[in-house]
């Protein structure tokens, strides 16, 4: 096997959002993403998984530069984009497209599907209207719709079909990287599997690289090559899918995995039920962010935040004192 | 525990095809008062367009034989102090009133919308500048501002248009800014940004269409206000020339005869009242259909 | 009297929109045994939530109306009793938990007041006794510092805590039947695990019957004894949870189970059900699943199959099994 090169390298990115809390109180801020690093090889699927508010979506928006990181660097295809200006960024964006969670909100309700899907072409190319129509029709067929759908509006489609339209739009420029933010979580299970299969087929056909963001571990296991687990804005564990699922190291990953309901009444369950709720990101705990809920908490965890270190097996990184 | 207000998502929304225009027409027919008010406005437009040909008499030519006549078979709305037929003057005046109010609101809407879009989309110092300026404008009573502007520019219908437009701008700017702020957060706008779309494209292709329906609603309500304002200016002698058949000017001319021949004032008053009412009712109806969120 | 706490028979519910009647439930029949957890599974639009609202008769402010059928609870048909009798049953004998707890909690009332109100109303307890009952319910659902939480408002609590409060409220009058409509769908997976754990514990302790409505087959497998699968406003399959996962009969159930990715099970591709759910105004003539079914036969397009017995306590609505049926009903 040839070692393929990294398409995306993320190094120590941070993003803090200020929050207004009344007139007189001091300005507070939320550390949405705190020192996150990972890299994605060409043709690979890297998934960010975690619960709501863990910063996985913010990370996705930093990689597409919809948000600008406060600190850290992001390389896409060898170009450092974290401080790039909008004009140069436009060139990079040809290579990076997004698929959004809500297939209802991400398509402009006032535009025909033909114009929705053709929009990236209008922005980045000088093709004629006929040329664009031809490519749109082709792309609609690729994602399992028909060319006559181009004349309709988004509201005439079901959720699954709309997500196909969103995927067609993301693919039309033949990008290298697709950032998919919870692309199937708004869909019913029977439709969800259609879209997951489609994403896998397209990856093969167009040699795509995916940054896949999801809260659903079953979906993540199905689609990913590598996985990063996030908790309160930090990456707590990352590595190849097999290692994460067969041999999770971080107590949070273990608890997360054991919490997933298994669709098999005969399955044995050894559930680790975490106590309490995720702490507020405005007032994160000292030391290890997970220590307030960790069943194996030690003294050192309360004072010193653990660094992400390579575990016994290669490529498997864990941030835990254990 | 009977607090269920909404039936879950199980009730599937029917997705059959219906053109927007037909959908609108169906709802519009249900808005009974607005529907009829709309007919009245259409009627006014016809009069405004064909006024000079419909008018039974010459609205400008004095006829000292028949001054200050009460309504009769010959002069349906009576005559004024120069013996001019009031009905003819009202008919020809319709064009002036609608023309002045439409053009002033149109100017206000165009400028206000551009300012609102810039203010809402870019934010920052431009937003602060535009919003502080509109705060200042809001601090003046509308009419006083218009009077001041006409006083500077001098009387005349064109300047009335400018004056009324100026005090329409901040209201439009504020409205559109609010809509822009909301539309900016839409996921499809974020999607357009992620594709690499330029700001101009995002503003005109994605955000502006989102603001159109509330703009139409506000536009129709604003017409009423500006007819009133234009008439007031004319009444004060700052607008249309006294001899022109402008409704406000007619009121102004007629006030000396209020005690003896009240119809000289009452009839243009009714014209103004009905027109303003019709536009407000249409505005209400449009709001219920196009922009139900802003109700109350 | 039977061992069933509830029997739903041939339930038909419709909504009116633009003077057009839309039947969203048709011939829905199932029963809930005493002390069991019955799962009601299906995708959005299949009518599972409308079923629960029909049982509770909660169609106020909507155009929904039940046009046919019976809902027999402990021997009485809930559709023939008066609204005031129904109010006595609601909350006291049959309680309900919703997906989004915030919509069912009063935002301007303290948690304690809301809990005590229901207890006083239905059990006729004094203030003191109602407070004790409320605190003990909060303890049972695993709320730390219950007496402090009693004085707080719903917005001060997290989603998981709110759902615990909802459960405490629903359970405070010791209902015979609890209807839980997607109780954990809005929650994160570690919080979902906590809530499911609490519900399971309470259900076992109180020997309560439960109707659990969900789209999540994982939740079904963990919580339920028996399962009813719904599609397009009809019951398509009914079976014990083991039978259903071991050997699903209806092609839709098969597709549904095959669609779900399962941790630890390596599959290159997921099975999927092609096509989309039909809308109520656009229903196929025969079997509602025919356009998406991979075993479709000519008869499926012509006539809707009836629900038939396909094994011990197993029912299925499919032409593949019609000849096996003996006591088939529509």
From TrEMBL, chain A:
Keywords: ATP-binding, Nucleotide-binding, Transport. It comes from the Bacteria. InterPro entries: AAA+_ATPase, ABC_transp_ATP-bind, ABC_transporter-like_ATP-bd, ABC_transporter-like_CS, Oligopep_ABC_C, P-loop_NTPase. Residues 8-257 form the ABC transporter domain. SMART domains: AAA. GO terms for biological process: peptide transport; transmembrane transport. One of its GO terms (molecular function) is ATP hydrolysis activity. Belongs to the ABC transporter superfamily. This is Dipeptide/oligopeptide/nickel ABC transporter ATP-binding protein. It comes from Brevibacillus fortis.
TrEMBL record, chain B:
Pfam families: BPD_transp_1, OppC_N. One of its GO terms (molecular function) is dipeptide transmembrane transporter activity. It is a multi-pass membrane protein. GO terms for cellular component: plasma membrane. The chain crosses the membrane at residues 34-55, 102-124, 136-154, 215-241, 261-283. It comes from the Bacteria. This is Glutathione transport system permease protein GsiD. It comes from Brevibacillus fortis.
TrEMBL record, chain C:
Residues 8-257 form the ABC transporter domain. It comes from the Bacteria. CDD domains: ABC_NikE_OppD_transporters. Gene3D superfamilies: P-loop containing nucleotide triphosphate hydrolases. Keywords: ATP-binding, Cell membrane, Membrane, Nucleotide-binding, Transport. One of its GO terms (molecular function) is ATP hydrolysis activity. It is found in: Cell membrane. It is a peripheral membrane protein. It holds the Pfam family oligo_HPY. SUPFAM superfamilies: P-loop containing nucleoside triphosphate hydrolases. One of its GO terms (biological process) is peptide transport. InterPro entries: AAA+_ATPase, ABC_Ni/Peptide_Import, ABC_transporter-like_ATP-bd, ABC_transporter-like_CS, Oligopep_ABC_C, P-loop_NTPase. GO terms for cellular component: plasma membrane. Its main location: membrane. Belongs to the ABC transporter superfamily. This is Peptide ABC transporter ATP-binding protein. It comes from Brevibacillus fortis. The lineage of its organism: Bacteria, Bacillati, Bacillota, Bacilli, Bacillales.
């Amino acid at each position: 096997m040839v070692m393929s090169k990294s398409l995306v390298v993320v190094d120590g990115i941070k993003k803090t959002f200020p929050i207004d809390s009344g007139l007189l109180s001091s300005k507070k801020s939320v550390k949405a993403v705190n020192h996150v690093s990972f890299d994605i090889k060409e043709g690979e699927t890297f998934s960010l998984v975690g619960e709501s508010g863990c910063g996985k979506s913010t990370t996705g928006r930093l990689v597409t530069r919809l948000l600008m990181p406060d600190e850290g660097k992001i390389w896409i295809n060898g170009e450092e984009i974290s401080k790039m200006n909008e004009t140069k960024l436009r060139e990079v964006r040809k290579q990076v497209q997004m698929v959004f969670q809500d297939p209802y909100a991400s398509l402009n309700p006032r535009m025909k599907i033909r114009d929705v899907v053709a929009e990236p072409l209008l922005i980045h190319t000088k093709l004629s209207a006929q040329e664009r129509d031809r490519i749109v029709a082709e792309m609609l067929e690729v994602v399992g719709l028909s060319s006559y759908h181009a004349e309709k509006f988004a509201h005439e489609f079901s959720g699954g079909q709309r997500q196909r339209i969103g995927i067609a739009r993301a693919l039309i420029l033949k990008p290298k990287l697709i950032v998919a933010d919870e692309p199937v979580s708004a869909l019913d299970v029977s439709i969800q599997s259609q879209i997951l299969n489609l994403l896998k087929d397209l990856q093969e056909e167009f040699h795509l690289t995916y940054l896949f963001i999801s809260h659903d571990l079953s979906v993540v296991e199905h689609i990913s090559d590598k996985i990063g687990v996030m908790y309160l804005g930090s990456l707590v564990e990352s590595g190849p899918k097999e290692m994460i699922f067969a041999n999770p190291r971080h107590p949070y990953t273990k608890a997360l995995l054991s919490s997933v309901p298994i669709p098999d009444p005969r399955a044995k369950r050894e559930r680790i039920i975490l106590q309490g709720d995720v702490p507020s990101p405005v007032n994160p705990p000292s030391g290890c962010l997970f220590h307030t809920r960790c069943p194996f908490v030690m003294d050192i965890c309360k004072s010193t935040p653990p660094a992400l270190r390579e575990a016994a097996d290669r490529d498997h990184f864990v941030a835990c004192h254990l | 525990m009977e607090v269920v207000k909404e039936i879950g998502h199980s009730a599937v929304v029917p997705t059959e095809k219906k053109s927007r225009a037909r959908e609108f027409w169906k709802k519009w027919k249900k808005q009974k008062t607005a529907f009829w008010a709309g007919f009245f406005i259409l009627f006014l437009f016809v009069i405004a367009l064909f006024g000079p040909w419909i008018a039974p008499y010459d609205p400008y030519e004095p006829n000292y034989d028949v001054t200050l006549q009460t309504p009769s078979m010959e002069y349906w709305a009576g005559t004024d102090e120069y013996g001019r037929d009031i009905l003819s003057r009202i008919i020809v005046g319709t064009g002036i009133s609608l023309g002045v109010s439409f053009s002033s609101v149109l100017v206000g809407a165009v400028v206000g919308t551009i300012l609102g879009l810039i203010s809402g989309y870019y934010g920052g110092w431009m937003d602060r500048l535009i919003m502080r300026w509109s705060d200042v404008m809001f601090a003046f009573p509308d009419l006083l501002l218009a009077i001041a502007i006409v006083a500077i520019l001098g009387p005349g219908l064109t300047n009335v248009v400018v004056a009324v437009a100026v005090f329409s701008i901040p209201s439009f700017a504020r409205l559109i800014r609010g809509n822009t702020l909301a539309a900016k957060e839409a996921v499809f706008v974020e999607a357009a940004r992620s594709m690499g779309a330029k700001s101009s494209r995002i503003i005109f292709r994605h955000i502006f269409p989102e603001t159109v329906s509330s703009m139409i609603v506000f536009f129709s309500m604003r017409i009423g206000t500006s007819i009133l304002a234009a008439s007031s200016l004319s009444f004060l002698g700052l607008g249309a020339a006294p001899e022109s058949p402008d409704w406000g000017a007619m009121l102004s001319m007629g006030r000396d005869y209020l005690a003896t021949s009240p119809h000289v004032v009452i009839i243009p008053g009714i014209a103004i009242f009905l027109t303003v009412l019709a536009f407000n009712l249409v505005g209400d109806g449009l709001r219920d259909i196009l922009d139900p969120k802003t109700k109350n | 009297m039977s061992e069933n706490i509830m029997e739903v028979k041939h339930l038909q519910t419709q909504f009116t929109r633009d003077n057009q009647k839309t039947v969203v439930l048709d011939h829905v029949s199932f029963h809930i045994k005493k002390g069991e957890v019955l799962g009601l599974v299906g995708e959005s639009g299949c009518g599972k939530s409308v079923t629960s609202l029909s049982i509770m008769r909660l169609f106020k402010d909507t155009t929904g109306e039940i046009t046919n059928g019976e809902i027999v609870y402990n021997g009485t048909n809930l559709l023939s009793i008066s609204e005031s009798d129904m109010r006595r049953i609601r909350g006291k004998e049959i309680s309900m938990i919703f997906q989004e707890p915030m919509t069912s909690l009063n935002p301007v009332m303290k948690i304690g007041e809301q809990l005590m109100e229901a207890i006083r109303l239905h059990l006729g307890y004094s203030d003191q006794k109602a407070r004790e009952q409320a605190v003990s319910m909060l303890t049972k659902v695993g709320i730390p510092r219950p007496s402090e939480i009693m004085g707080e408002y719903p917005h001060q609590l997290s989603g998981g805590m709110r759902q615990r409060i909802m459960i405490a409220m629903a359970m405070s009058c010791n209902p015979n039947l609890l209807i839980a409509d997607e109780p954990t769908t809005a929650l994160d997976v570690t919080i979902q695990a906590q809530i499911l754990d609490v519900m399971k514990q309470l259900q076992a302790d109180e020997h309560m019957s439960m109707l659990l409505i969900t789209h999540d087959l994982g939740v079904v497998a963990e919580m339920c004894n028996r399962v009813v699968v719904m599609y397009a406003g009809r019951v398509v399959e009914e079976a014990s949870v083991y039978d259903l996962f071991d050997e699903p009969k209806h092609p839709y159930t098969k597709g549904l189970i095959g669609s779900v990715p399962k941790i630890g099970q390596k599959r290159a591709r997921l099975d999927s059900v092609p096509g989309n759910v039909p809308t109520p105004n656009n229903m196929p003539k025969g079997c509602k699943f025919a356009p998406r079914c991979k075993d479709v036969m000519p008869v499926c397009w012509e006539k809707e199959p009836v629900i038939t017995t396909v094994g011990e306590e197993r029912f299925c609505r499919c032409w593949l099994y019609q000849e096996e049926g003996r006591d088939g009903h529509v």
